[in-house]
Design goal:
Length: 143
Amino acid sequence: MNEVVDDTYNKCLLEMQCCTMFDYIRLLDARIQRMQGSHSAEVRKMNFGMAIMALKAGYPIRRSGWNGKGLWVIKQVPAHITEEIVPKMQSLPQSAKDLILKGKGTIDYTSQCLIYNENTGRADSWVPSISDVFADDWEIVVE
């Protein structure tokens, strides 16, 4: 490629286009197989970009390489919590409720992700690690 494309930015765009087209072909192949009746056809070993697209669309994701089985990540639905609801929230201590009500009185949840453990029912906030970002073992969680 260096002999043909001498502009660094163009090289980057070409590499990105190639990767995107490869991902598209994998997605299309799985979709065609499923439309033909193969309900076991899945896109495995997705990169983080593909996983984020699924997450943004509301689907749970996980890494096949995670040691803990039964773990998956979901993006929370943005929510506006009104001042009528804040006092009833079980997830906040009274001191936090008092401070919130003394201030604006509302809570706006945005752009949060949870990691859920289906074995324990525990949900914790989740921020991807650098190894998660560069991993190619992401998958969509289905029943």
